[in-house]
Write a structure and sequence with these properties.
Elements (H helix, E strand, L loop, with lengths): L17 H7 L8 H10 L1 E5 L4 E3 L7 E7 L2 E6 L5 E7 L4 E2 L1 H6 L6 E4 L3 E7 H10 L1 H25 L4 H16 E4 L2 E4 L5 H8 L3 H13 L3 E4 L2 E4 L2 H9 L1
Antiparallel strand pairs: 1-8, 2-7, 3-6, 3-8, 4-5, 4-7, 9-10, 10-12, 11-12
Helix pairs in contact: 5-6, 6-7, 6-9, 7-8
Length: 242
């Protein structure tokens, strides 16, 4: 595995500070020093192992969270019982925010894709700040717009019928959000198993393996220890149109 990756699958992650994680979150950078101090006092860092459920869909909103180190996926179950990942969140990204603001139950489950440290902010504490700060409210609405559009784009692409198209869409979205340019392509700096890819594409592990093997033989992607490098993004884009 490349040494410039932010983590190693086999090594426990170093716990980041609450201050560092909060500062990395652009959605919350409109907080005043006093508001930031309140979160520093009442928030706390939590650890989730790979595959661990952070919260389940349908549970009441008790916390919102910010990814410190690692990656978290937001999932739901189809009527047939298949788990589908609708969003992948990395360091500095906030999840559970809109649910906290609207006072709803979590519509999606949050699951750690890798070993993950994340900042938990009590919903009640955050709402006290949010309701008293028009500047923060306006900033959150402006900042969340692009993310919601990306999530809608992913869901729209996931509605395509053919599994090759769904998997190509997943790889393009991951490449756009977590791609690291390499000499021979763009490496997706998230360690993904075939199970992860299958869940995101809404298909079976066997089908994901078959499609990824075909893409490798055609020189579109390369895999190495759960890391995927997109060698030919143009061919992935063409798959969406065929």
């Amino acid at each position: 595995m490349s040494s410039n990756l932010p983590f190693d699958l086999d090594v426990p992650l170093q716990k980041p500070s609450i201050k560092a994680v909060l500062e990395s979150c652009s959605v919350l950078n409109a907080l005043t020093p006093e508001e930031r101090s309140t979160i520093l006092e009442q928030g706390f860092m939590a650890y989730a192992d790979r595959g661990e459920v952070i919260w389940l869909a349908g549970a009441p909103s008790q916390n919102l969270a910010v990814v410190g180190t690692g990656f978290v996926k937001m999932t739901r179950h189809t009527p047939h019982g298949t788990e589908v990942a609708l969003e992948l969140l990395g360091p500095g990204q906030c999840f559970g925010l809109l649910v906290a603001i609207e006072g709803r139950e979590y519509p999606l489950s949050a699951v750690a894709v890798t070993k993950t440290w994340y900042l938990k902010i009590p919903t009640r504490s955050f709402l006290e700040i949010y309701n008293s700060s028009s500047n923060l409210r306006d900033h959150i609405l402006r900042t969340l717009g692009p993310r919601l559009r990306r999530a809608q784009d992913m869901m729209a692409r996931m509605s395509m019928g053919r599994m090759e198209q769904r998997l190509a869409a997943v790889l393009l979205i991951l490449m756009d959000s977590y791609g690291q340019p390499q000499k021979l392509g763009t490496r997706i700096v998230v360690p993904l198993t075939r199970q992860d890819l299958a869940e995101m594409a809404g298909t079976t592990v066997e089908t994901a393996i078959r499609i990824m093997s075909k893409m490798q033989k055609e020189g579109i992607v390369k895999t190495d220890r759960q890391m995927i490098t997109v060698l030919d993004p143009a061919s992935l884009s063409e798959l969406l149109l065929t």
